[in-house]
Design goal:
The chain is 69% helix and 0% strand. The chain is mostly helical. It has one domain.
Amino acid sequence: MDRNEAKRIADLISQPRLGPYLAASGGDLEAGLRLYAWNLEASCAFAGALQFLEVVLRNAMDSRLATYYGRRDWWNTPHLTLADYARRALGKAEDATRRRARSAADDIVAELPFGFWVSLLSRRSDYYTQLWWPALRHEFSGYSNHRPAVLHNDLDHLCRLRNRVAHCEPIHHRRLLKDFETLLGVLNFISPEASQCLKKFSRIPEVLDRKAGVLNGSLLPRI
């Protein structure tokens, strides 16, 4: 693109949002726009992979807890102590489904955010004795640690990445290949088949390999 076109695109993106990319590109406008475009390309690739992880994770955890507690709305089990964050998330999900005249357990589960499921593996409340040891550890058959601390840390890391992607924040500075490996590793704990499926079909490796070419202008970004 020529200089005038680049300026018009930059104005549409806005200076506050484009600023970090310009800073990372030494103030060069066209280079900053190429970095912005590649960041968008990488975000699109990770969005699909993270969505796949979220669906697999929530379905696995929800199914195991429903089986263990013997009820589809396992979160309403008497004497089950959930932390305030989890209860607030459930309240919002129930309100959202109620407004649409849909209040089945499956609808509530679909409304719950990624962070809700990640939080169930944390040290909050009494999750180890209520959730992890009697139920959830069996859903992560490939995970060998006695406690879920490492698993929680990996998922929390991926949840933060997911939030950056969802809010159009920069991710170009991250160790994205390591992020992808972490994602595949967590999936492998649940299902080696799911991990291999994502590894086979994800375009993340291709996008990462294209970075240098997009940044030097020899390749066009693919959004």
